[in-house]
Amino acid sequence: MSGNGTSRILADGPWTHREISANGIRLHIAEAGKGPLVVLLHGFPQNWWMWRHLIPRLADAGYHVVAPDLRGFGASDKPPRSYDLMTVSGDVGGLIRALGAREATVIGHDIGGLVAWTTAALHPGVVRGLGAVSAPHPRRLRRELISSNAQRRALAHAFAYQLPRVPESQLTSDNGAEVREIMRKWTGPDWAHTTDFAYATEVYRQAMCVPQAAYGAAEYFRWMMRSLARPDGARFAKSLAVRIDVPVLQLQGWLDPVLLPQTSDGSSAYVAGPYESHYFDNLGHFLPEEDPETVGALIEEWLLTL
């Protein structure tokens, strides 16, 4: 796969790589450990690599950890359509079943967090616990996109991505330089000056330049914004009005400039089970990478309660 620019996408480490068929597509996963299943869902503009610190930590703690590339990203399939949260949550449910598990704890960041919320609502039988990192409940996000100028400004890129072919060109020109700029703008003040940040952004730049990856990434935002005014979006929002029975952990940076802390506030209204939240003063959007030790310890401690 290195011929398609994926050499760093399948990076070696304390994990293995393989492909799983789920929900009619092929998903690449990075996998480690044995025990209860924990599925880690990445956000934009990243891929599975964003969980590189947490995968070995949780594997060593006694969990079977699986971090897929979502459809459209990295080394997973990039179909021409179906980037709505209903379909992608079906990918996650299918992945859990394909791994031979009855249920899993699903932890997601950004878009992956929206997918995690959706999976818990639409496929409750396969979700044991839900972690939402820099990710409000989708109904909260929908409400704020309709009513809040601040949240609309924060997601201005998502509105710009409605144009055909333009975002794909922006995300891939100059070997994905726009990806590095997005990461720099959205992170807190400390991580952006580290060698870890420099290497991670190179991985994400390379992953975005895989053929059709930028298209897949943009399609998530196209559906997100268009669904605000379409009947299928209203039906989706109605289907998520249920309260989630499983334990929920919500993590949010106060300096997050894209999915705002005030948008995450109120997500607990959709939780019937135990709910725990933590807000971080000096962190931005990429919590598991900005402070992997603190975030990893919180997640590991929370998993012990399930």
From TrEMBL:
Keywords: Hydrolase
Pfam family, one: Abhydrolase_1
Residue span(s) of domain AB hydrolase-1: 36-178
InterPro entries for this protein: AB_hydrolase_1, AB_hydrolase_fold, Epox_hydrolase-like
Molecular function GO terms recorded: hydrolase activity
Name this polypeptide is given: Pimeloyl-ACP methyl ester carboxylesterase
